[in-house]
Design brief:
With 219 residues, the chain is of the alpha+beta class. 20% of the residues lie in helices and 26% in strands. The chain has helices at residues 15-22, 45-55, 107-114, 137-147, 183-187; strands spanning 4-7, 28-33, 37-42, 59-60, 65-66, 68-71, 94-98, 120-126, 129-134, 151-152, 155-156, 158-161, 200-203, 208-210. β10 (151-152) and β11 (155-156) form a beta hairpin. The longest helix has 11 residues, at 45-55.
Length: 219
């Protein structure tokens, strides 16, 4: 079963903090902790759906940050050392950036932060994480080396290689919940419409921002 993605918590959050939060909704197999985000694996998909509905956008931790909780497609950023990716995994031109302030940070702030390291072809933003794609892999590598654990508007961000290059794709690596599914979800008073798979795609050659609109019908 695919895990639940949880982001935007404080950097001093420990695994037992997340276990205490998510285990209220059902047995957890394991939690994979990253820098500023985590993947939570439930035993039962229905419990995972309950956790997503109840915990998304909930204030958590000492600084009361609003959590980003949603389905993952189990495609995680590539693990790497400070200078190069771990193992034999080939680095990509697209970077995964997480933990910036989702309210104050604008797409131009992200662009300014990463443009010193090369030509950016597109930036895709969703809530408190983004995908930044460079024209070449060498530029992306320079950006990873110099921007991981840097600050954007006073927030320390994590920057890693994405699993694959974005190439203007509109699929969501940390996918939104799908409509339909178990009766338990449909019967819940906390049911919400899925969010669009992406929010902002900016073509930096034209300078235009495209904000997609999608209408979801109730299940």
């Amino acid at each position: 079963m695919r895990p639940v993605f949880c982001g935007n918590f404080d950097y001093d959050t420990r695994q037992y903090d997340l276990e205490g939060l998510f285990s209220k909704y059902g047995p957890i197999r394991r939690i994979d902790m990253k820098s500023g985000y985590a993947f939570i694996y439930f035993e039962d998909e229905r419990d995972a759906e309950d956790a997503i509905r109840r915990l998304d956008n909930v204030s958590f931790g000492y600084n009361r940050r609003r959590l980003s909780v949603e389905w993952s497609r189990q495609v995680e950023p590539v693990s790497r050392s400070r200078d190069r990716p771990a193992g034999d995994v080939k680095p990509t031109r697209t970077l995964f950036v997480i933990n910036f302030d989702p309210i104050r940070t604008k797409i131009r702030d992200i662009e300014r932060h990463f443009e010193p390291y090369g030509k950016i072809t597109n930036i895709r933003v969703r809530r408190n994480f983004a995908f930044v794609q460079y024209e070449t892999q060498e530029e992306a590598s320079a950006a990873v080396k110099n921007t991981d654990k840097s600050t954007i508007l006073d927030r320390v961000v994590t920057v890693e290689y994405a699993f694959r290059d974005d190439d203007n794709e509109r699929d969501d690596r940390y996918g939104s919940p799908k409509r339909g599914g178990h009766d338990r979800r449909r019967a819940s008073p906390y049911m919400r419409s899925p969010s669009p798979s992406w929010l902002i795609l900016k073509n930096l050659d034209s300078g235009k921002e495209v904000v997609p609109w999608r209408k979801w019908q109730a299940t």
